[in-house]
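> Could you send the Ectoine hydroxylase-related dioxygenase, phytanoyl-CoA dioxygenase (PhyH) family prediction when you get a chance?

Sure thing. Input:
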Amino acid sequence: MGYIKSAALEETGYVVLDRYNKEIDPKEWLDIEYVDWKSSGDTRFAPLASAFGDIECNGFWNHKPPRTDKDGVFIPSQVEKAPTLTARAQEPGANIGRCRVIELQPNSYADCLYNLHQDDNNRLNPDGTGWVVRGFFNLTDDTESFFVLRENRTDPSVEYRIALPAGAQLIIDTQRLWHAATHLGTDPRYCLITSWESGPELDAYIEKHNGVKHVPNFEVDQEVLDAGQAEQTRRLAARAAALAARGQAEKLVMSEA
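Output:
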């Protein structure tokens, strides 16, 4: 039977929506409670919705009873501090799983390539239901930073680089695309990440906000691109050698973040 998926994501695996143009008080993402949860890079996460409404970020399948990343429970103490962010997550009307704000410390393009990962969004997701994708709403004005999306982790021939100014809004099939952010600057980057179930509600939201599946790549000097690719190759080889010395092989597991 297969899963219900959004046709808008079929070609590239992502869409960029209209930029959000309303002011939000930074207190909404600065005053909520964070947990030390690592993803790609030096990160913390502040959950707005979790498996049972607790301030934690674990995959829903790691709870009892285990389930897929749907039917998240919003956390009253967090929602009270971040009502606008909560409303933005709920606006599509699609089923929501995990919903969190990520805090990412500055990194480099080479760091980003080394940290490229796919998300584990659809574990235990029943066949014939909506495929889980993720929305990324950039909160801080990170004009020199950009999202990196690849079909293949180590192949730069298909690499989408999406600018991340304040108000940038993306929906990404992060179980399909390898992804991470290059965040240049001195202050942390903050972004609202929401797991949504694909279906007519999400399709209507994408159409309403003029989702486009091709945008110009964020411009990066070719020297930086080449150096980053070389550093990714070096780091991955070094990690593989270290694992081999211990009699282990690298497991390309999906991230639960």
